Structure formats: C-alpha cells, structure tokens
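Structure (tokenized):
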C-alpha cells in the first residue's frame, strides 16, 4: 500500500425507464344503440326517474370498453345511491321554474340556493365517480377540498349573483327612463362580466380537477396558467366573430336563393323566412360543429399535456380538424336519421378523444400502492357531473 486514499468512481446514474401505455376504445355504435334505446324508453316511461340507472348503464359500458395497456377500466357505482343528488337537483329545477312562473321575486332566491350547493355537488360527483372507477384492480379517487371547490366558482359567482339580485331593480333605476333599455344594458354588462371571468373560473376548475385526481398512490398535479386559457378564449372569440360575418353573408345568399326558387321569383321580400332559417342552421352548424370542437381540442391538449404525477405523465395530441370533421359529420347524420345516429356519434367522438391521450409511466403500476380508506359512498352530487361534462375527465 502506498498510503494514498483509493478513489472510488461514482456509478453513472440513469434516468428511469419510461414505458408507454396504449389507450384504446372499443365501444361500438351498434352495441351502444341497444343500451341507449332502452335507456330512452325507460326514462320516458318513468317520467325521468330512470335517469340515474340509465347513467350507470352508460358508464359501465364506456368504462368496460376503455382499455389502457391491455386492461379495461371498470365502474362499480350503485345507481340507486345516485337518486339523492338527482332528486335534489330535480326539486331545485322545478322550484326555480315554478317561482319564475308564479312568483318571479322568489326565483332569485332559488337560483342563489342552487349557486350555494352546486360546488359541493360538483365535488361530490368527482369523488363518487373516481372512487367507483378502477383499473387493474387499483381504485381511483378525488381528493380536492370543499373550500377549493367554492373558490373555483368565485370569479363567475360575482356577476351571476349581482345579476340575480339586481336584475329587477335595474329596470327602474337604470340610466334610462325606458325599463326595457335598462334591462338590455344591464344584461349586456352582466354578459360581458361573465365572459371576462369565465376563463378564470375554467382555469381554477381544471387545476382543481387535475390536481385532485388520484390512482392508487399516484396523486396527479397540473401546471396551468390562466393566460393560456384566456388565449384560447380570445382566439375562439375572434374565430367566432369573423366566421359570423361569413355565416351571415352565406345565410342571406342561400336563404334568398331558396326563397326565390320556392316563391317562383316573387322577390326578396318573401325570402325573409328562408334567410332566417338558413342563418339559424348555419350558425348552429358553425358554433356546434366548428367553434366548440376547436375550443375543446385546445383545452384538452393544454390540460392533459400539463398533467402528471411522480410515476406517470399524460400527453394529449387531439387533432382539432379531425374533431371538427367528425362533429360536422355526426350532426348531419343525426339530422338525416332523426336522431337515431346519436349513439354511434357518441362512440366515435369518445374514441377520437380518448385515443388522442398518451400515457407514459416511469414506475410500473404493479408497484403502486392502494391507500386505505379512500372510498366515498356519497353519491349525492353525481347528477351534477353531467352538467360539467365530467365523463372520464374530458
């Protein structure tokens, strides 16, 4: 030995291996049509009371046909436990409609009551839905707090509450002596305030959702800036504005030609009805078939591509034009088949959106641990999920 310390070289560190989990959706329009037809029939025969059971059947089918890494999801929810939330919302809806018809002053109170309970119902919906969803025997969950659920809605609740409380008073105390003009001006101000705060609420809601999702011990987190959501809203608004000019010109031209053809050249005066009809159809087709899919594509890619946990990462590459093409095609086929194509349209849209999501894992799911005591039996808020389009978090 020469008396000098021996140097030991540190072993090179390697990044954990990443593996892709393939996502496939095998739902069939033909299969789902039978479920959909029976659900519609029983909902009509029971005057809507079958809705929770219909929803459970739909969720079981969608989950059983959503495959991740060769394993299907499973839904374990009890539809009878979903009646409480359904009946609560039904009672509030009937009370609001009845108050608006017979006691307009009371409708604001019912609406404020709905505002007060909605965030809690929304949170309960996610807790129930995720707690009753599993993959490879691993239960999912939602761990967002009730406090944060209410904070999500605060930006839009301010203009909504002011509108509910002051709508009647502003008609007689506005800047004009004409109550109708005051009501219109107040509606314009309220709508503008709601438009400006909606992207903020949407940002908070997506942070809350994706930051509360969990599968086994993998708690997700998301990095989402409000300016990114506002930018999507701004681009959508600009697209809608310029496209509206084109739609109005096209509606006027097509409606006039249709009127001239059907009225045997009686002149443009008799074409106003056809012009209005064409504008309604074209605006509906554009906003439902182009603008809404565009915004949905941008939002899905933004949120899921910024969501990850310690052991897995998500990436969304949904093609906006593919979704627009599919949506327009679905709308046309639904119209041509008097609504009978709707089940196939639903399955095709789900397939496109789900298979656009990529999942990569850095730790094998076999090593994930299932925490104890995470089940949520309260299904009171499950009915609220449909309002927010919460199916599978899309």
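Design, position by position:
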């Amino acid at each position: 030995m020469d008396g000098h310390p021996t140097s030991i070289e540190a072993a090179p560190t390697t990044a954990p291996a990443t593996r892709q989990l393939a996502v496939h959706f095998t739902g069939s329009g033909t299969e789902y049509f039978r479920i959909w037809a029976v659900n519609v029939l029983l909902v009509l025969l029971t005057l809507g009371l079958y809705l929770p059971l219909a929803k459970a059947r739909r969720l079981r089918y969608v989950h059983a046909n959503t495959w991740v890494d060769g394993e299907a999801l499973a839904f374990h929810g009890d539809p009878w436990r979903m009646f409480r939330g359904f009946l609560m919302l039904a009672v509030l809806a009937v009370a609001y409609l009845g108050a608006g018809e017979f006691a307009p002053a009371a409708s604001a109170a019912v609406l404020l009551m709905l505002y007060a309970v909605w965030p809690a119902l929304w949170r309960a919906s996610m807790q129930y839905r995720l707690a009753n969803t599993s993959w490879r025997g691993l239960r999912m969950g939602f761990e967002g707090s009730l406090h944060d659920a209410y904070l999500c809605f605060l930006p839009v609740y301010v203009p909504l509450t002011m509108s509910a409380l002051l709508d009647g008073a502003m008609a007689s105390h506005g800047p004009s002596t004409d109550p109708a003009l005051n009501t219109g001006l107040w509606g314009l101000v309220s709508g503008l305030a709601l438009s400006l705060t909606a992207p903020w609420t949407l940002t908070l809601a997506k942070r809350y959702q994706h930051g509360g999702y969990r599968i086994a011990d993998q708690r997700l987190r998301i990095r989402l800036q409000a300016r990114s959501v506002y930018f999507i809203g701004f681009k959508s608004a600009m697209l809608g504005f310029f496209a509206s000019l084109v739609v109005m010109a096209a509606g006027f031209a097509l409606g006039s030609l249709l009127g001239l053809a059907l009225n045997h050249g009686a002149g443009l005066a008799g074409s106003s009805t056809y012009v209005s009809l064409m504008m309604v159809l074209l605006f509906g087709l554009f906003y439902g078939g182009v603008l809404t899919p565009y915004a949905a594509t941008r939002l899905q890619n933004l949120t899921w591509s910024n969501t990850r946990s310690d052991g897995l990462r998500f990436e969304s590459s949904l093609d906006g034009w593919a979704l627009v093409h599919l949506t327009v095609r679905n709308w046309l086929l639904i119209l041509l088949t008097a609504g009978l194509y709707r089940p196939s349209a639903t399955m095709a849209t789900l397939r496109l959106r789900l298979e656009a999501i990529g999942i990569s894992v850095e730790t094998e799911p076999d090593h994930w641990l299932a925490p104890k005591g995470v089940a949520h039996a309260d299904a009171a808020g499950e009915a609220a999920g449909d309002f927010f389009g919460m199916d599978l978090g899309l």
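Reviewer-requested clarification: Confidence is low (pLDDT under 50) at residues 385-394. The two ends are 68 Å apart (CA to CA).
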